[in-house]
Structures are given as C-alpha cells and as structure tokens.
Specification:
The complex is a heterodimer of chains A (115) and B (112). With 115 residues, chain A is mostly beta strands. Chain A is 0% helix and 49% strand. In chain A, strand 7 and strand 8 form a beta hairpin. In chain B, the strands form three sheets. In chain B, strands 2, 5, 6, 10, 11 and 12 form a six-stranded mixed β-sheet that branches. A four-stranded antiparallel β-sheet of chain B has the order 3-9-8-7, with no helix packed on it. A two-stranded antiparallel ribbon of chain B has the order 1-4. Chain B is built from no helices and twelve strands. Helices cover 0% and strands 50% of the residues of chain B. In chain B, a hairpin with a 5-residue loop joins strand 5 and strand 6. Chain B is globular, with a radius of gyration of 13 Å. Chain B is mostly beta strands and 112 residues long. At the A-B interface, strand 4, strand 5 and strand 9 of A face strand 6, strand 10 and strand 11 of B.
Chain lengths: 115, 112
C-alpha cells in the first residue's frame, strides 16, 4: 500500500512567486493534515481536513496560504505570493476516520526555499 | 500555551552508547505523548507512544515513560546503532484534538 506522497520534494522559488504543494494521502483516509517546520524549529500544525471540509485551520499563518482538498482525495497548499519566511519543510499526514487515536502517517515533506 | 521542549542537538554518540533525549511538555490536561523519528531522506514515522501516566512506550529498543508528575517523556535506548542516526521529535496531542504539538527535534548522530 502506498504511503503519503508529496510533490515536489524540493522547490526553490523567488520571493513574490507562487508555489503549489501537493499531497496524496493514503487511500481511504478521511483525515488530512498539513504541518510546517521552519528553520529547524518545531513542527507546527497548519490545518486539518476531514474529507473535503476544513475542520481546523487555526495554524494557517496568513491569507497568503490557501489549502484545498477538492473531492476529498489529494490536497494542495498554495503560497501566493511567497515570502522569505515561508522557507521550510512542509509535511502532510493522513489518518483514517475513527477518532483522535487513529495514527497519523506522514509524508516525506516538501522542502521549500524562497530566495 | 501548549508546548514541547526537547534537548537541543546534535547529539553525537559512539555505537553501543546509552542514549537519553530529554522531553518535557506544557499542556492543559492530560495528553497522549509520542516520539516520532525522521531518518535521512524519509518522512516522519511514529516511533512509540504512551497514552496515560506511568505508561511505557517501546519500539526498536527505544523506551519512554509518561511521567505526569514531571511532565516528561524522555527517550532512552541502551545501546545505539549507526542506523539510529536520525532526527527525533517529541510530541503530544490532547484527547479531544487531532492536532499534534511537536518539539523542535533533536538530531542524533551515531558514529561507528
């Protein structure tokens, strides 16, 4: 069974440009999460989808970030326009339905560098 | 607010040495506690967990005990291997939430 996959693995863009990160969760997982690790600091929660609905987006830093999950399958995270402080590793995770105790499986992450 | 503090790295050890990575948490209530590991080039993987006080999580020779009185969840291994070289993240989650709260990670380098 395929795990959580993220595309691209690395992205280098200039300040002011737009970048879209993609996450394909494990098939059948209703819950999908985005997290971010900036500059070697702690990994921080961004948001949580249940199927196509945003359950919790309290961690989204500002309105330059837009997450979607059309159809409840894969998700995209768009940063527009990108700023230098957006550099970091963006992780996606997914878990089955069934409550908070179901294990979340993480992808390899997308390393974003804004120059 | 809710947070996790773990020892800064890198931690460099020789093979077969004893490992401790300290982790303390600040949370309102009684969370579930986790250790995740990220091996080079791979994603985060759940290493072990404990869901209530005095529980001991264990996996791959690693152990951590949920200490409510000291709000700690220190990771230990009696004899590390080169293959244990990775970044280790301590985390918790409140019972009513899906959200994981992570520490900043500790890089472990094990030398032959």
């Amino acid at each position: 069974e395929a795990g959580v996959t993220q595309f691209p693995s690395h992205s280098v863009i200039e300040k002011g440009q737009t970048v879209t990160l993609r996450c394909d969760p494990i098939s059948g997982h209703d819950n999908l999460y985005w997290y971010r690790r900036v500059m070697g600091k702690e990994i921080k929660f961004l948001l949580h989808f249940v199927k196509e609905s945003k359950q919790d987006e309290s961690g989204m830093p500002n309105n330059r970030f837009l997450a979607e999950r059309t159809g409840g399958t894969y998700s995209t995270l768009k940063v527009q326009p990108a700023e230098l402080e957006d550099s970091g590793v963006y992780f996606c995770a997914s878990s089955q339905a069934g409550g908070v105790n179901t294990e979340a499986f993480f992808g390899q992450g997308t390393r974003l560098t804004v120059v | 607010g809710n947070s996790v503090t773990q020892m800064e790295g890198p931690v460099t050890l020789s093979e077969e040495a004893f490992l401790t990575i300290n982790c303390t948490y600040t949370a309102t209530g009684y969370p579930s506690l986790f250790w995740y590991v990220q091996y080079p080039g791979e994603g985060l993987q759940l290493l072990l967990k404990a869901t209530k006080a005095d529980d001991k999580g264990s996996n791959k020779g690693f152990e951590a005990t949920y200490r409510k009185e000291t709000t700690s969840f220190h990771l230990e291994k009696g004899s590390v291997q080169v293959s244990d070289s990775a970044v280790y993240f301590c985390a918790f989650r409140m019972d009513s939430s899906y959200k994981l709260i992570f520490g900043s990670g500790t890089r472990l380098l094990v030398r032959p």
